Amino acid sequence: MTEPVILVAQVVLMVVGCLFFGVGTLGLFRFSDTLCRIHALTKIDNLGLGFIVLALLPLAPSVTAGLKVVLIWVVALAASATSAHLVARAVRSGQRADIEKGSRDG
Amino acid sequence: MALLRAFCVRAAAFFLVWWVLTEGDSSGLGAGAVIVLIVAWFSCTLYPPSSHALRPVGMLVFTGYFILRSVIAGLDVVRRLLSPSLPLNPGYLRVKTSLPEGGPRWLLANTLSLMPGTLSVRLQGTSLELHCLDLDLPIDQDVRAAERKVAGVFGLGEAGTEESAS
Amino acid sequence: MTLMLNVVAVFLLGNLLVALVRIWRGPHAADRMLASQLFGTTGVALLLVLAQAQGMPSLRDVALILALLSVLAVVAFVTRVVGIDRSTEKTRSDPARPESERP
Asked: Where in the cell is it found (chain C) (predicted)?
């Protein structure tokens, strides 16, 4: 059932997906400010998840199981984008509060 | 009539989701049918069919654009991360959107979070605050392009106004 | 193929552990909340791979729930811990409001 071409493609996709996850985690340490870290985490990890999902699709036992994996990917994408927005907004309003506090104190 | 049509479309969509979630298990389809009808009825009362109906063609165009741009976005961040000098020029940018309130605006904000170099920080009325990895990028141009694609999903015209057709 | 899947799962788990160091070091609360986002993507990928490797389809449901709950965790964080927008806007608008308008 698993032809060699598909097998090779799966391995390549998985390795690429893992590389993206690895680089995303590296971004958490290399970027110095919180918002840049959110950029790295959101964009790179979503791409990594996309590659892993693509690699898993040929292994899915049925069409619906494959569709379910894709559905989970879409939900994870929406979840990640929403989380990124909310954390970024929290950081930004924290910055504003600091600026206002500074101007009141000074 | 529009209500009945929206009800049928939503029920079909929910049933599809149910079918996928149960991985096509036939024993759950009966219970699913009942739940789908209740949920579709609730959704029609809570969110009455508005002018922002989803357009299949627009959604396909949007999906293609989204996948292409998110791959570019990932590679862009990876390139910046792995180059030893960390080429960043972060900063905030404010853009105005002409999209109507609600779903279209939120879809734009969430999409921009996954697009190259932008992260939506705050959405207030028509003004959207973005955090950019590199202010030298043509951000405004990208936002306009994303805005057009989002407008296509909801069947909105160029200036964010309702298209008269269909 | 199962071996490959297991290797991928171990790699993703290691990834999560390394990222937890960042969460531990902080320094801001927002940095720590990135853990939730991380579990929303890396955790979901890990569970999907494990579902295939172990032949446990129910782990896909776990992945779906994890993705949904990660958002709720962030929502709880920004509204309760940080008090999104409220901390700045309330202090600005409340003193400006005349006494008679207050309940």
From this structure: Cell membrane
